[in-house]
# Entry
Amino acid sequence: MSLLSINPKFRVAICGAGIGGLALAVAIGKFAGRDIHIDLYEAHDTVTTAGSGIAIPSRTSEVMKELGIYEEISRVSTKPPSSSDGPTYRRSKMPHGGFEWFQRTLKFNAIYLQFNKRLTRYDKQSSGSIILHFADDSTSTTDVLIGADGLHSSVRKTLFETLDQDVVDPSKIRHYSDPSWTGTFIYRNVIPAKKLSELDPNHVALRGFLLHVVSYPVAQGTLINVVAYVTDEEKAGKSLEGHWVSTVSPEEVQESYRDFEPACFENPSRWALQVVNELPFAVYDRVGLLGDACHAMTPFYGAGAGQALEDAFVLGRLLAHPLTTLDNVSAALKAYQDVRLPFVQFVARESARTGLLLNFDMSSVAREDLQKELEIQREKMVAQWEWESKDSPIDEWLEAERKLQESLGVSNGL
# Structure
């Protein structure tokens, strides 16, 4: 995607036309107009759906409203039955039928795209410009490079592999540049809601969430996305033998969940759940990371896409800021990092912790203590989502702007 400008302040290249990359292009275009030249590169030959659902909490909807895309996205979204509905937690590890445990209440509140451009590496020039190298042997030049290229980010890989040895311990380079397996397999299946309703009109998946099979409606309620998690904590961080994604039999899923109440799986696929280890920084010189390229996390909050949008909003506004020039753009990148990186790494850690709670191992709890332990677990689960209502992306943007102004020695009045 290329947002052309006759006399731009500088050029920004965004690698990756996923949610984060597209949102960053929108944010820069909205707040900088044609003052910044934007090139957006996508490795694939089209922008398609990944087949998974995206949660939009109130803080993420704030970003969408600020960017002017909320109404358009709302029209194609799958909405909850009512504003008071939230995910329902169900005790399902019992073959003859589980029970609903509790429900959590939610609060709702001219660009050219270049496809088939898979970045392989980049080189920094003595002038400060950056040369991008693509898999088709073509090259391009930019002033600022943002990696929004996902879990297997070429931008992240090049960034850490080309650092001076005094910046990062060389023995930690692969820890930062390569994804890490969590030891969890995800079995995914998309089922037509009509078919599931015909099989069982009262099936809990038609109403919300299961434990720790998660289900939710997608495609405006016409499909039910069913996701089952199987975790071996001893394998976390180890190499995986075989393919990261593969098609498996329904029997494989059923065997893993043989002690659970029945679930519907017809044509499941198995995904190895990978994350990006906590990075020491998200920007270096004129190169920055955004979304999964920076902080791919476990999906137990459904927050990955929302956090990519928040990254894009804060970073886009900083790059578009009247104070930001080519000479000081690194200050804008650092303000983005200082505000966003600590928060999103907190969300990633808490998401992993939520996943452990959802595994809900009660095997060591005595029968007479079960009800008491259920109440304790319920309170912990509710508390895990308190971060969603603390501060907001708007507050983060204002804090980032303040940091940019301070670093440039400028008062709030410009």
The first strand starts at residue 2 and ends at 3. Confidence is low (pLDDT under 50) at residues 89-110, 206-211. The longest helix spans residues 329-359. The CA atoms of residues 33 and 320 lie 8 Å apart.
